[in-house]
Design a protein that fits this description.
Helices cover 39% and strands 15% of the residues. The protein has 367 residues and is of the alpha/beta class. The strands form 3 sheets. A 7-stranded mixed sheet has the order 1-9-8-5-4-2-3, sandwiched between helices. A 3-stranded antiparallel sheet has the order 7-6-11, with no helix packed on it. Strands 10-12-13 form a 3-stranded antiparallel sheet, covered by helices on one side. It has 2 domains: 231 residues, Aspartate Aminotransferase, domain 2, CATH 3.40.640; 121 residues, Alpha-Beta Complex (Aspartate Aminotransferase, domain 1), CATH 3.90.1150.10. Bound molecules: pyridoxal-5'-phosphate (PLP). The site of pyridoxal-5'-phosphate has 15 residues, from helix 3 and helix 4.
């Protein structure tokens, strides 16, 4: 049997006709840049996320850069974030000239440790970027309390958590700005790159709309230096068709997660992901902490099971950040976890037979 880590072909089979129709409308209209589908999708996304504004842009990475610029983050500002995340979270901080300040994570949820945020705050700290890793929101109650106390802005990097909830609130709408990615492997994936900023603040929304078109308003008059980062109209057309299915897809992932919990629960060499009781996760990844990780990785791949390591090296010890002065041992939890994590297939359309096969091979390896 063959079980890929993610199989998008099945998902597209059901909606391909509808997608074709929507894309054809774009071709016929000739309105390729910020065509009507962009606004339509932005309105749908704002409604889905229960927030006032959803501003489309070219990628989840650009969404972070736009968010930082909208909050007026500049050179020498310090931005606190987790060391255990996809590179873009911190890369975007450097891109606006600011300094990433890394914080270690909690071992059970993989998310940033609020206690350690407090210790990282200095007079130069301007904002916190919380990441909702693998589809599980970070502890936003504690993070918002810290931000209020120290007068800091909060960006939620919600690239992996669209539709997830913390305390009943939709992830990405709790801080000042939330960002989304529609990279194909996220729960809501486009057919290329695409991203979005969410905010309830009218002024921030107005800035974000301008920043994605070179900071212009009106046309050819520039108050600040922005980006060329629009949500492509064809991608908006695809996303419009896909969004109404998202809740079903995420629910299927939660069911698949329950199946793994039930059938891997007794394997002592495995720690299953812990979900905070205040949270509804969308399981963008199902990530285990295991003994002999590299052995398991090789064994599963040999048996045609797709799996991956998210992430093999925390950001504070990446070469490109060596100037920041961190060294090995500074973030012990993330450093150890990165040697022990493995993500296994959890996509919505995985069959029971495929999941049974994954379970069987993992059990075979350890028992
Ligand atoms: C995917 C991802 C991004 C970047 O999104 P792109 O659309 O690929 O630019 C940023 N942060 C996190 C946590 C991600 O997983």
């Amino acid at each position: 049997m063959n079980v890929p880590l993610l199989d998008l072909k099945i998902q597209y089979k059901d909606i391909l006709d509808e997608i074709r129709e929507e894309i054809e409308k774009v071709f016929i209209s000739n309105r390729y840049i910020l065509g009507p589908q962009v606004k339509e999708f932005e309105e749908m996304a704002a409604k889905y996320c229960q927030c006032n504004h959803a501003i489309g842009c070219a990628s989840g990475t650009d969404a972070l850069v736009l968010a930082l610029k909208a909050l007026d983050i500049k050179e020498n500002d310090e931005i606190i974030t987790t060391t255990f995340t996809f590179f873009a979270t911190a890369g975007s901080i450097s891109r606006v000239g600011a300094k990433p300040v890394f914080v270690d994570i909690k071992e059970d949820t993989f998310n940033i440790d609020p206690e350690k945020i407090k210790k990282a705050i200095t007079p130069k700290t301007k904002a916190i970027i919380a990441v909702h890793l693998f589809g599980q929101p970070a502890e936003m109650d504690k993070i918002m309390a810290i931000a209020h106390e120290h007068d800091l802005k909060v960006i939620e990097d919600n690239a992996q958590g669209i539709g997830a909830k913390f305390d009943g609130k939709i992830a990405g709408t709790i801080g000042d700005i939330g960002t989304l990615s529609f990279f194909p492997s996220k729960n809501l994936g486009a057919m290329g790159d695409a991203g979005m900023c969410l905010t309830n603040d009218d002024d921030l929304a107005a800035r974000l709309y301008q920043l994605r078109v070179h900071g212009e308003n009106p046309q050819y008059f520039h108050k600040w230096v922005g980006l060329n980062s629009r949500l492509d109209t064809i991608q908006a057309a695809v996303l419009k068709v896909k969004l109404p299915h998202l809740d079903n897809w995420s629910e299927a992932r939660r069911k698949n997660a329950q199946y793994y919990y039930k059938h891997l629960n007794d394997v002592k060499q495995i720690k299953l992901p812990v979900i905070n009781s205040k949270v509804i996760s969308i399981y963008n990844q199902f990530t285990l902490i295991v003994e002999n990780r590299d052995g398991l990785l090789e064994y599963l791949r040999k048996n045609n099971i797709g799996c991956a390591v998210y992430y093999p090296k925390p950001l504070h010890i990446q070469d490109c950040f060596s100037k920041l002065g961190y060294k090995k041992g500074d973030m012990p939890v993330a450093e150890q976890i990165s040697q022990k994590v493995i993500s296994i297939p959890i996509f919505s359309e995985i069959t029971k037979e495929q999941q049974d096969y994954v379970i069987e091979k993992i059990r075979e390896f350890y028992l």
